[in-house]
C-alpha cells in the first residue's frame, strides 16, 4: 500500500500516520522528496480497509498495490486454469460453444433445439429449469421436470449440460442432472450461496453481476475457490449502463482485462450482453476475437413463441452461420473452436 502525504502536511502529521501504520502491523518505508512525502506500507492484509488511513490528517491518497483476491489472481497462479468437464477442456486453446434456449419449455422444444445446436458443433446444451425472472408473474421454469428433459436431450445428441441454480436448496438436485452449474448475474454477490458452491464437485460458471466491477466479480469467484472448488469459469453477460437502446452493454473489454488479472477462463454471453437477436451475432464475433475461452448463446427454433428471451434468441440457421464465422476468427488468432 502506498500512502501519499499532502504537500503541506506537518512533520507531526507524517509521524502520526507512520505511528498508525505501525499499529496496524505494517512495515513503513518513508521517501521524502522536495515537495512530497510518500510512505510505502508493506504487509497489507487482503481485508484491510484503506479508508482507515485515508481519513488521517495529512493523507492525500492511499493506493492499494496488491489485489484483495488471491486464489483468483494471475499473480498467485500464473498459468491458465483449464477446467476439465468430462473430457471437454474450458480455458485451453480450444473455444467451447454452449447453446440452447433461455428456458426448457417442453420435450419437443428442447430436443429440436439440442439436435440443431449439436449439428452445428456446440459442445454444451444450455437451458434454464429455474429462471430468475424480473417479474414474479413471468414463466419461472419447469423445475426438476425441465432438468430431466435437458439431460435426456443433451445425452441423446452427445452434448454436455449447463444450467442455472438459483439458491442453496437447489444445488443437490441440479447437481444430479448438470455438468456445469451456472450462477446468474443476480446471484453474483449472494455470498452464503457462493460458499456452498465451494463444496460442490461440479464446475461453476459465475456470471458477472449487473453492476459489478472486475474486482467485485473476482472477489465472488474467490468465495467459491476458497471454499475448495477450483473448477470456476467467469461469464461476461453485459452490464447496466446509461444506454437504453440495448438490454445491457456487452463489456468486451472484460475479456482481456480478466485474462490479465486472473487465470480463470472467461466465457462470453452476447445474448444477454446486448439482448437483440441480430446484434448478438457481431457481438459473438467480437467476443471470440477478444479472446473469450467460450461463448454461451441462446438459440430457439421458434423464438416468437419462446417463454423467455425469444427476442435475443438466434434461429438455428443463424447459429449455424455464426459457428462458421467464429471458426474463421478463432483460426486467425491461433485458436480453434472445439
Ligand atoms: C440466462 O442465462 O438465461 C440468465 C437468466 O442469465 P443472467 O443471469 O445473465 O441474466
Ligand atoms: Mn435468458
Describe the structure.
The protein is α/β, with parallel strands linked by helices. It has two domains: 2-63, Phospho-2-dehydro-3-deoxyheptonate aldolase, domain 1 (Alpha-Beta Plaits, 2-Layer Sandwich), CATH 3.30.70; 83-337, Aldolase class I (TIM Barrel). 33% of the residues lie in helices and 20% in strands. It has eleven helices and 15 strands. The strands form three sheets. Strands 7-8-9-10-11-12-13-14 form an eight-stranded parallel β-barrel, surrounded by five helices. Strands 2-3-1-4 form a four-stranded antiparallel β-sheet. A two-stranded antiparallel ribbon has the order 5-6. Helix 3 (107-120) packs parallel to helix 4 (144-156), helix 3 runs parallel beside helix 11 and helix 10 (277-290) packs parallel to helix 11. The longest helix is centred in the C-terminal third of the chain and has 17 residues, at 316-332. It is elongated and about 75 Å long. The two termini are 43 Å apart. The model has no long low-confidence stretch (mean pLDDT 97). It binds phosphoenolpyruvate (PEP) and manganese (II) ion.
Summarize the helices and strands and which ones pair or pack.
Elements: E1 2-5, H1 11-23, E2 27-32, E3 37-42, H2 51-54, E4 59-63, E5 83-85, E6 88-90, E7 94-100, H3 107-120, E8 124-126, H4 144-156, E9 160-164, H5 171-175, E10 180-183, H6 191-197, E11 203-207, H7 214-226, E12 232-236, H8 254-261, E13 266-268, H9 270-274, H10 277-290, E14 294-298, H11 316-332, E15 336-337
Parallel strand pairs: 7-8, 7-14, 7-15, 8-9, 9-10, 10-11, 11-12, 12-13, 13-14
Antiparallel strand pairs: 1-3, 1-4, 2-3, 5-6
Helix pairs in contact: 3-4, 3-11, 6-7, 10-11
The structure holds phosphoenolpyruvate and manganese (II) ion.
